[in-house]
TrEMBL record:
Region entry Disordered, spans: 1-27
Coiled coil: none
Protein name: GAF domain-containing protein
The entry's keywords: Kinase, Transcription, Transcription regulation, Transferase
InterPro entries xref list: ANTAR (IPR005561), CheY-like_superfamily (IPR011006), GAF (IPR003018), GAF-like_dom_sf (IPR029016), GAF_ANTAR (IPR012074), WH-like_DNA-bd_sf (IPR036388)
Gene Ontology MF terms: kinase activity; RNA binding
Chain ranges of the ANTAR domain: 190-251
Length: 261
């Protein structure tokens, strides 16, 4: 475990500075700490796109709490853990695989129960024996702390923090992690909503383009809407291009092969 944060008075430390040197985070001064977390929230919310935000969340989490590995995990449609982002994909995938095989684990428990789960010492913990044995055999992880990233009643995954040392997550680390997890949850919520809005806009634009292409084909070839759509689909399959791309070409050039006789 990295050394804990030292006090640094009379100056504000930004998240960028923390990424370079986690030991400079000003958590011993309440006002500096409040300013630091304000800056952290700004950095997270200004990151564009859900994938980029996820990666920023784990990188800052690693440095904020001072852990060896940070990851965000969600559950798929079959309620199996799935890795979304990590500071070390190789080790994180091993941990997620161990939970899938075991059918239990701290991240699973945090997500299903919408709560924080801490394992102080995996060598002594008896809650998830199959998972515990896999981690002890295949990784250097000895303690785990997991937060459900909850906004309202909607979880956006779980933030899982791992240390090579037992008893790494005392009251200070738990409180610090909880505050950061709240910021991360809101940032992921905003990023997801922004991506959703962008996808809707793209879908609307695509729909309009296809509609315009259908109108052109219907007028030029004197066919029905269904026949025009069949023409677009055939050209898409024949040219191995997306239907939306074919439609865009029709709209821009007005060119299209004549209908089959």
């Amino acid at each position: 475990m990295r050394s804990r944060a030292r006090a640094r008075h009379n100056s504000c430390v930004t998240p960028e500075e923390l990424t370079d040197d986690p030991s400079t985070a000003p958590f011993d001064d309440p006002l500096d700490a409040a300013q630091w977390f304000s800056n952290t929230a700004r950095v997270l919310t200004e990151t564009r796109g859900r994938e980029a935000t996820l990666q920023r969340v784990v990188e800052l989490a690693r440095d904020v709490v001072g852990v060896d590995l940070a990851a965000v995990v969600t559950l798929d449609r079959e309620n199996r853990p799935t890795l979304l982002a990590a500071t070390d994909d190789c080790v994180a995938e091993k941990i997620v695989h161990a939970q899938r095989v075991a059918g239990a684990g701290p991240t699973w428990e945090a997500l299903l129960g919408n709560k924080t789960v801490v394992a102080d010492d995996l060598t002594l913990d008896q809650r998830w024996p199959v998972y515990r044995d896999a981690l002890l055999a295949d990784t250097e992880v000895r303690s785990v702390m997991t937060f459900c990233l909850l906004v309202g009643d909607r979880p956006h995954g779980a933030l899982a923090l791992y240390s090579k040392h037992p008893n790494a997550f005392g009251e200070r680390e738990q409180r610090l992690g909880a505050i950061y997890a709240d910021h991360a949850a809101f940032a992921l919520s905003e990023a997801s909503e922004a991506d959703h809005a962008a996808n809707l806009q793209t879908a609307l634009s695509t729909s309009r383009t296809i509609g315009a292409a259908l109108g052109i084909l219907m007028e030029r070839h004197h066919v029905t809407a269904d026949e025009a759509f069949a023409m677009l689909r055939r050209e898409s399959q024949h040219s191995n291009r997306k239907l939306s791309d074919v439609a865009e070409t029709v709209v821009q050039t007005g060119e299209f092969p004549p209908p089959a006789s």
